[in-house]
Every structure is written in structure tokens, then in C-alpha cells.
Design brief:
The structure holds two protein chains of two kinds. By secondary structure, chain A is an alpha/beta fold. Chain A has a single domain, classed as 3-Layer(aba) Sandwich (Rossmann fold), CATH 3.40.50.2300. Chain B has three domains: 197 residues, Four Helix Bundle (Hemerythrin (Met), subunit A) (Up-down Bundle); 53 residues; 160 residues, Histidine kinase-like ATPase, C-terminal domain (Heat Shock Protein 90, 2-Layer Sandwich), CATH 3.30.565.10. In chain B, β5 and β6 form a beta hairpin. In chain B, α1 runs antiparallel to α2, α1 runs parallel beside α3 and α5 runs antiparallel to α6. Chain B starts with 5 loop residues before the first helix and ends in a 5-residue tail after the last strand. Classes of the chains: A alpha/beta, B alpha+beta. The interface between A and B is medium-sized, with 17 and 14 residues.
């Protein structure tokens, strides 16, 4: 299990703190890594790609916030889903915005799931455990 | 707008009429002049022909006389030549006088005398060797005939002369009057045309100034609109973000660190934050109605009302409610907006339902001839009126306008905790988007009715 990890792209420190807390509290075995904007996310993926020979792998899934500085979530989503290698990584949009337009656009760009950020800590834990159990246990993903 | 240009139409018609009169008069004048010239020409020709005829007879006579006096047959040559010309000349005169019966009678008379005169000449020549007494008598008769001919010719000539002087008189009058008349008419129509031109130019200048102002206003309006769009976007996202965090962090605080009082305070913080968030969401929904991208479609209103009811059916108040829907109309409109409109009205009925009785909701439609001027002063006569009536707590009629204002509420948060003061503002805006309007009727303790007026003919 140790080599599995989840990548979170989130510019907001509070949200990172909350996610980290929720993960620790639930004592999930996976590592959780944070990047703070789209550019960082892409360079993170590039460094994995270059060190392929070392025992590292791509994240099990990416939690992607839509509104981020530098490169925002939509641009990153589009880039990942058009990239020959990265496109197989499941991308879960994790955002405050709940407009029909935005949801449709994200799925059109290739998002695997669209989740609106919960408004309570309990809700956050529920959402996280559901996403995690779906992508780690229920779904079959390419090795 | 129509009355402003009516003078132009009047002046155009007057100018056109002037032109028509001008050309008609002109044509008539020319025709008269032509007729006069023709008759002048005719008279002149008749006179010339008469002179020629007289000349021919005289020449024939002098030839005959020369032969009778001398017996020299060389005199017969002019006689034969000229006497041959006489008859064609009389025929020509007869032709020329065809349209004048009086002259024609005289010409016929003249021809009779001339032919007798010519016969008498011929007779004199034949009776040349038959004794003087016969010849003399014959010559005498010839002279009498000749005098009559001369007299008739003079008469016809005089008549033609008097005709000529009459013709030239009226021709002179016509010629002197015509240019004056034309000048007057021309000046009238020219001045009319100039006046119209000036008026139209003034109108155009005014309009182009108005158009410029309008364009400036539109640019300003667009800027304001864009600002509003930005605010809408900021509210829809950036304002909600910190609120969400207040809620999630305070929920965490309750779980880990709260004693009883702390829990109560944090609960209140949460309720307040939730409320702000909901307000923002509804305000955003309200603002989004200004920039609809949805196209108008035609659909049955009943289906939209049914959808709206189904959206709300899980609400306990609505579950027990008695709902009557009686609509039969197809409407051209924004379907999703109308669904939202009926949802808002049903939601309103639920929120302000009477505690002591089950909700009774009736949605009925009728065609009405309610005369009402819209905000542009255009009179609409035919509306499809949809009345949404409930038996809830109602309201005082004096507030029937106020309830449609955004965030305006008649109840306090304690008596109606769910109300936000957006639903009815939303409903009004949607009716405006459909070029209709909404009116409210309330009786405290008895219920409220909302009348929606959809224009049947979309106005010009």
C-alpha cells in the first residue's frame, strides 16, 4: 500500500489543512501530496515521468480545485486529458462552484468525477472516504 | 413617430398634385396652341388657293378673250392650260374647308358658278363663227357669272381673314398668359419643396443627435452590465468560499473543542453563515435572469407547472396539500425560467401556509381582456391570465407592491424562517422577461393570489 499516493492540487491553505486533518484522522494508509497551483501540478507529474526507473508511480487519483492561480483547474484538466501518458490518471474535480455550465464543461474536458466541496467536516470525511474507496477498491484502473 | 412625418407626407402629396396640375395644364395649353396654329395655317392655305383659283380663271378668260378678238389659235393654248387647272383648285379648296360647314356651302356654290362660267367660256369658243348676237349674249352672261364668282371668293376670303384675326387674338392671349401661370405654379411647388426639405433636414439632424446620445447610453449600459457580470461572478464564487470555510471549520470546532455554550454559539454562527450562503446563491440566480442564453420555445404551460410541482413534492406541506391545476394554453417563452417561476410561487405558498389547515393550491388560467399599458405606454389588450391562489396566511393588500422587491419580506426570521425575499422578485423578473406582469392580491389570514399576465399577441 505504501507506494500508493493521492495528489491534491489546492491553493487554499485552509482546505489543505482540512484535507490533511481528515486523512490523518481516518488513518488512511496512503500518502497525500499537495501542490498549490496548476504549474506545480504539471511539473510534479513531469518529474515522476522522468524518474520512471525509480520505484515511483503516478498518483491513484488527483483531487483538482478549479480556481487556482497561474494555471487554473480547467487548463490543467484539459492538458492532462490530452497528454498521451497522464490522461489515464483519474481526475476528480473538487471545487466550490456548483453551476451546471461548469459541471458540463469539466466532463466535456474529460473529468472523471465532479464533487462540490462539502460544508461540514463530517461531510468532508464522508466524501473523501467515498472517493477513496471507489478509486482504490471498486474501480479497476490501469496498472 | 407617425405624426412627426405626416407633414412630409402632406407636402409630398401637395407637391405631387401641383406637378400633375402643372403638366396637365401645360399639355392643354400646348394642344390649344397647336389647334390655333392649325386653323391659322388652314385659313392661310384657303386664301392662297382662292387667289390661285381666281388667277387661273382670269388667265383662262383672257386666253378665251384673246382668241375671240383675234381668232388666233395661239390664245387657245393658255386657255386650255389654265382651264384644266381650275377644277383641281376648286377640289383642293373643298378639301381644305371640310371641317367648316358654312364655308363648305359657299365653296359648293362657288364651284357651281365656276363650272357654269367655264361652260359658258367653252360655249363662247364653240359659237365663235355663229354670229355676234349669240356671242354677245353669251359674253354678257359670262360676265355676270364671273362677278358672282368674284363676290363669292371675296366673301370666303373675308371670312377666313376674320377667322385669322380672331385666332391670332386668342393665340396672343394664350401665349402671354401661359408663362405667368407656369411661373406661379412653379414657385409654389418649389417653395413647398424647400420647406419640406428644411423640415426633413431638421428632423434628421435631431434624430442623429438622438441616436448619438442613445449610442453613448448603450455603451455606458454595457459597461455597467459588464461590471454587474463581474460582481455576479465574484459573488457566485469568491464570496461563497470564505463562508464555506466558516461553516466547515466551525463544524470541526464543535466536534473537538465545544462545551455546551460553545456548541450553541457555534451553531448560531453556522446558521448565520448558511443563511448568507443561501442568500448569495439566490441573488446570483436572480442576477443570472438578466443574461439569459436560453432561446424562446413554444410549450404547454401545464407540463411546466407539473414539473415545478414535482420538483417540490417531497416537501411535507405539499404532500398533504390539495392541488388543482386547470390550464389550457401553449406559451412562447423561456421554459426553465417559467419552471423556476412556478417553483418560486409554490415555494411561497408552502412557506406562508396556514398552520391550522392543509394547503389548498389552485393554478387556473383564463383569457382576459384586461387593458393595461405597459412601461412603454403600449396598450395590450389580450392576456392569458394565470392565477395561483393559496389559503395561507395571506398579507395586507397595502404591501402588494412591496413583496416583489428583492430581499423585502413581510415576516420576520422568527415567524417565517425560510423566507429570503428572493422568490417573488424572481417571479416578477421572469414575467418582465416574458413581456408580461404579475399582480398580488392578499387577505390576511385567508390567503394570497398571484395573477400572472402573459401577452397573447407579442407586442410590436
Amino acid at each position: 500500500m505504501g507506494k500508493f499516493f493521492i495528489l491534491v492540487a489546492e491553493d487554499d491553505a485552509d482546505d489543505r489543512f482540512l484535507l490533511q486533518t481528515a486523512f490523518q484522522e481516518q488513518q488512511y494508509g496512503e500518502r497525500i501530496d499537495f501542490v498549490q497551483n496548476g504549474v506545480e501540478l504539471l511539473s510534479y507529474l513531469d518529474s515522476i515521468q522522468q524518474n520512471k526507473h525509480v520505484d515511483t508511480n503516478f498518483p491513484v487519483f488527483i483531487l483538482l480545485d478549479l480556481n487556482m492561480p497561474k494555471k487554473d483547474g480547467r487548463e490543467v484538466l484539459q492538458f492532462i486529458k490530452q497528454h498521451p501518458v497522464y490522461k489515464r490518471i483519474p481526475v476528480i474535480i473538487f471545487t466550490t462552484t456548483k453551476s451546471d455550465n461548469e459541471v458540463r464543461k469539466c466532463y466535456e474536458l474529460g473529468a472523471n468525477t465532479y464533487v462540490v466541496k462539502p460544508t461540514s467536516f463530517d461531510g468532508l470525511i464522508t466524501v473523501l472516504s467515498e472517493i477513496r474507496s471507489y478509486w482504490l477498491k471498486t474501480a479497476t484502473v490501469p496498472a | 413617430m407617425k405624426s412627426k412625418f405626416s407633414y412630409a407626407i402632406i407636402v409630398f402629396v401637395v407637391s405631387l398634385a401641383t406637378l400633375v396640375i402643372l403638366s396637365l395644364t401645360f399639355q392643354r395649353r400646348i394642344n390649344e396652341l397647336l389647334k390655333l396654329s392649325h386653323s391659322e395655317e388652314q385659313s392661310n392655305k384657303i386664301i392662297i388657293e382662292l387667289n390661285r383659283l381666281e388667277h387661273f380663271i382670269k388667265e383662262a378668260e383672257s386666253g378665251q378673250r384673246g382668241f375671240l378678238l383675234t381668232g388666233d389659235s395661239s390664245f387657245l393654248e393658255p386657255y386650255i392650260y389654265y382651264s384644266k387647272q381650275v377644277y383641281p383648285a376648286t377640289e383642293k379648296i373643298q378639301e381644305l374647308t371640310e371641317d367648316d360647314i358654312n364655308t363648305q356651302i359657299k365653296v359648293t356654290q362657288l364651284r357651281g358658278y365656276i363650272s357654269r362660267r367655264m361652260e359658258s367660256m367653252h360655249f363662247s369658243l364653240q359659237s365663235f363663227d355663229q354670229g355676234d348676237s349669240i356671242l354677245r349674249g353669251n359674253l354678257h352672261r359670262g360676265k355676270v357669272l364671273m362677278d358672282t364668282c368674284h363676290m363669292l371668293i371675296r366673301q370666303i376670303e373675308d371670312e377666313q381673314d376674320s377667322l385669322l384675326s380672331k385666332t391670332s387674338g386668342s393665340k396672343n392671349i394664350l401665349e402671354s398668359k401661359t408663362p405667368e401661370n407656369f411661373r406661379h405654379l412653379f414657385l409654389v411647388s418649389l417653395s413647398l419643396l424647400l420647406i419640406t426639405f428644411a423640415l426633413i433636414m431638421r428632423e434628421i439632424v435631431q434624430r442623429s443627435r438622438f441616436q448619438r446620445d442613445l449610442q453613448a447610453n448603450i455603451i455606458e449600459l454595457n459597461q455597467t452590465y459588464e461590471e454587474l457580470q463581474q460582481i455576479t461572478f465574484i459573488t457566485s464564487h469568491d464570496f461563497q468560499e470564505p463562508l464555506r470555510k466558516i461553516r466547515i471549520l466551525s463544524s470541526r470546532l464543535v466536534e473537538n473543542h465545544g462545551d455546551a455554550e460553545g456548541k450553541m454559539i457555534i451553531d448560531r454562527i453556522q446558521v448565520a453563515a448558511t443563511r448568507i450562503q443561501e442568500l448569495i446563491q439566490e441573488a446570483v440566480q436572480y442576477m443570472a435572469l438578466s443574461r439569459t442564453t436560453e432561446g424562446m420555445t413554444e410549450f404547454n404551460l401545464t407540463s411546466v407547472v407539473n414539473e415545478a410541482v414535482n420538483d417540490m413534492i417531497d416537501h411535507p406541506v405539499l404532500k398533504k396539500a390539495d392541488i388543482k391545476i386547470n390550464l389550457s394554453v401553449t406559451i412562447l417563452g423561456f421554459r426553465s425560467q417559467l419552471r423556476l417561476l412556478f417553483k418560486s410561487l409554490i415555494d411561497n405558498a408552502i412557506k406562508y401556509a396556514h398552520e391550522d389547515r392543509n394547503l389548498q393550491l389552485s393554478i387556473t388560467g383564463t383569457v382576459t381582456d384586461n387593458n393595461k399599458q405597459d412601461e412603454h405606454g403600449i396598450l395590450q389588450t389580450s392576456y392569458y391570465k394565470v392565477s395561483v391562489a393559496d389559503n395561507g396566511i395571506g398579507f395586507e393588500q397595502e404591501f402588494s407592491k412591496k413583496i416583489f422587491q428583492l430581499f423585502k419580506r413581510l415576516q420576520t426570521a422568527e415567524t417565517a424562517p425560510d423566507g429570503k425575499g428572493v422568490g417573488l422578485a424572481l417571479a416578477e423578473k421572469i414575467m418582465v422577461n416574458h413581456k408580461g406582469y404579475i399582480l398580488a392580491e392578499g387577505k390576511p389570514g385567508a390567503g394570497a393570489t398571484f395573477h400572472l399576465y402573459f401577452p397573447i399577441r407579442s407586442h410590436r
